[in-house]
Amino acid sequence: MYEHRIMKCKEKKSAIAQMCEKMGSDGWEFAGQFQSRFLYFFRRNYLIFTRSSK
Prior knowledge:
Blueprint: E1 2-9, H1 13-24, E2 29-38, E3 42-52
Antiparallel strand pairs: 1-3, 2-3
């Protein structure tokens, strides 16, 4: 079985790299990213992480 976690992140590549490194230390693997718009004004970047549950 797998767990999934979606994290809100800043657009900067350095912020994404830091988030991936932080999550990787807890056994999470980066599984992609997507952007979403809310009310046409706020664009957010989200990162998806997965790990196998024990």
